[in-house]
Amino acid sequence: MNTAASLWSAVVVSGLYHGVNPGMGWPLAVSAALMARNTGNLYSALAALAAGHLLAMAAILFPFSALLVLVEWQVQIQTGAALLVIALGIYLLINRRHPRFLARVPPSRLALWSFLAAMAHGAGLMLVPIYLGICGTLETDAGHAAAYSLMWNNATTALAVALAHTGAMVLAGGTIAVGVYHWLGLKFLQKSWFDLDLIWALSLIIVGLLALLTAH
Amino acid sequence: MNLRPDPTFYPTPQMAMQAPVETLAFTLMLSPDGAQPDGLAVVDVDPKSDTYGQIVHSLFMPNTGDEFHHFGWNACSSALSPLTGHAFLERRYLIIPGIRSSRIYVIDVKEPLKAKIHKIIEPEELMTKTGYSRPHTIHCGPEGIYVSTLGGGGEDGTDGPPGIFIMDCETFEILGRYEMDRGAQDKHYDFWWNLPRDYMVSSEWGLPPQFENGIVPEDLLSNKYGHSIHFWDLRARKNIQTIDLGENHQMALEIRPAHDPAKEYGFCGVVVDTTNLQGAIFTWWRKKDGTFEAKKTITIDPVPASADDLPDLLKGFEAVPPLVTDIDLSLDDKYLYVACWGLGEMHQYDVSDPMNPVLAGKVEIGGIVKKTPHPNGKTFGYGPQMVEISRDGKRVYWTNSLYSTWDDQFYPGDRGAAMVCADVGENGGLTLNENFWVEFPEGYRSHQIRLEGGDCSTDSFCYPSV
């Protein structure tokens, strides 16, 4: 597998990973459908969760796509991003407390909740090194490309990364939510909810370290 | 730190009902005159055990004069809320407030027979951080542990209104007041909520000068105790509606919402109607437009009595008021238990139709006039008071003390602590269990009961029963 393909699969795998994490919201879709006694509410809740997650990805990726115009600084940007991801991982590792502001979001505002949950857990930041890697593979000819087309390329790539990631996330979370709602029952929630906080923090650090090693 | 949710957290009330039955109960013991330190009794409630019905461990506090009353867990089924993700907490600590001292104890009961004090929050800290005093009801919710209080600041607790404060559910640090907009709320007692629907309901007893040294008859007869219930936007911390039940409905105490969060109704017990001495239950419900309504759905009549049989407080009335002091709802939302502390009766109502409760069972024990003994022949002092139902709804436990100074007014003299258990019939009905009788240490009274692994007045559920 070439570098680009493996980076794109990393985008999808991270999406699947975020999706199965109950902390990113699939139990909310189950709860919405159960409360309303209507399957339709499961899908509208998933859509709201997806919108919030997508927005959180975009909010993090687009500033980096703009930064990439500074072509000669690419290595520094990659290094900086990697360090940022590692720093967040270490912070989440040390500070194992849940962000209290999430508890103030009313259950009716799922998209906002999803956006804030993704931001608080650094879900978007986890994608940055992967995204920068993908941009790197695109620009063999970077030096000669016009700034405008470069920016356009980076922005569309950012959008594609955010969409692919969020799509995978909804697929994974949605599959579990539908399974729990129709067949598995809430017993699954009680038995399968694992504390991913530690693994999550470690994933951030690993992604950052890999990016550091490959940034050149 | 758990890697999986605590097995005693349940997504739905139905799943909690199917869980293994309780083998231990925790009961608060208070020293009415403050001569001895208050304590926590661990009671064996496993019928197969040799020590069934006995206190198998007691933990006494290092202070006196706390007056233990209500208490609760550091974490319950609300930790499975998909919004807040506290799933990995442990149901391990009991938070026990002293209603008289304003001191709060955090007791580690991971090993119930070695229960030990984990942390003590001194009254000064509570008052400095919240301006509240006399902590009362405990519930675990989205932002941590919520504690209602009966008093505001100052020596007699009347400097500012009482309210709710929030504690961190891991460090037990007091974080501050809950309310951002309390509206008309100026007294407090109980509160509970519907987590997915995002509303809270609170009730009113009276201010500290109205209860600490005993009931104030003039205040009662001029309807100065609480008679309103308040509805809140839970996460916005805002009072959105106050319903006055009518000023004659004195002391609106326990709030019992349906456990199934898909249902949008609940109950509130009223101690006494000053126009006719009745006890009453109101059903409250949320309408389609998000506003609330309440209606009186149960009344319990007073019973005429000779003045000679009555304490000074009641002689003039020549009747025993039922005095509805506690109510509790089974996890299937089917039976509401109503303690008639004055009459000496425990009522069981079928509330399958919450607007039309039907009396399904009744037990007579104790009482101001009746003084009905336990079927084992022993004297049950006072009347049925704090009631707790097993998760499966098959056993109902209760104790007999209301509040030290009020006990002495309605039941002069020391009548002793008690804790009994009644079995629920297949189709309703309530029968006292002859073999269950707890002996408490001399000089103590008994108050609220908590069951190992959760019961019918602790856990808040985030998913509806299917």
Give a topology summary.
The complex is a heterodimer of chains A (216) and B (466).
Chain A: H1 3-20, H2 26-36, H3 40-67, H4 74-94, H5 110-120, H6 123-138, H7 147-184, H8 187-192, H9 197-214
Helix pairs in contact in A: 1-6, 1-7, 2-3, 2-7, 3-5, 3-6, 3-7, 4-6, 4-9, 6-7, 6-9
Chain B: H1 13-17, E1 24-30, E2 39-44, E3 55-60, E4 72-73, E5 93-97, E6 104-108, E7 116-121, H2 123-130, E8 133-141, E9 144-151, E10 164-167, E11 174-177, E12 191-194, E13 199-202, H3 208-211, H4 217-221, E14 228-233, E15 238-244, E16 249-257, E17 265-273, E18 279-286, E19 292-300, E20 303-304, H5 312-315, E21 319-320, E22 324-329, E23 335-340, E24 345-350, E25 358-364, E26 387-389, E27 395-399, H6 404-410, E28 419-424, E29 430-437, E30 445-451
- In what range is the share of β-strand residues of chain B? 35-45%
Q: For the largest beta sheet of chain B, what order do the strands appear in spatially? A: 3-2-1-30
Mean pLDDT of chain A: 89
How much strand content do the residues of chain A show? under 5%
Number of domains of chain A: 1
CATH level-4 homologous superfamily of chain B? YVTN repeat-like/Quinoprotein amine dehydrogenase
